[in-house]
Amino acid sequence: MSDLETEIARRRTFAIISHPDAGKTTLTEKLLLYGGAIQLAGSVTAKKNRRQATSDWMELEKQRGISITSTVLQFEYDGCVLNLLDTPGHQDFSEDTYRTLVAADSAVMLIDNARGVEPQTIKLFAVCRQRGIPIFTFINKMDRPGLDPLDLMANLEEVLGIRSAPVFWPIGDGDQFQGVYDRQSSQLHLYDRVQHGANKAPVRIVDLSDPTLDEIIGSGPAQKLRDDIELLDVAGEPLDPERIAKGEITPLFFGSAVTNFGVERFLKRFIDLAPTPTSRPAQGGEIEPSEPEFRGFVFKIQANMDPNHRDRVAFLRVVSGRFERDMVALNPRSKKSVRLTRPQKLFASDRETVDVAYPGDIIGLTNPGVFQLGDTVCTGAPVQFRGFPRFAPEHFGVLRNRKSEKYKQFQKGIEQLSEEGVVQLFHEINAGRTEPILGVVGQLQFEVIQFRLISEYGVETSLDRLPYGHARWIQGPEDALREVYWGMGTRRVEDSFGNFVCLFESQWGMNHIIENNPKLRFLSTALDL
Ligand code: GDP
Question: Which residues of the sequence carry a binding annotation for GTP (predicted)?
Answer without folding.
Answer: 18-25, 86-90, 140-143
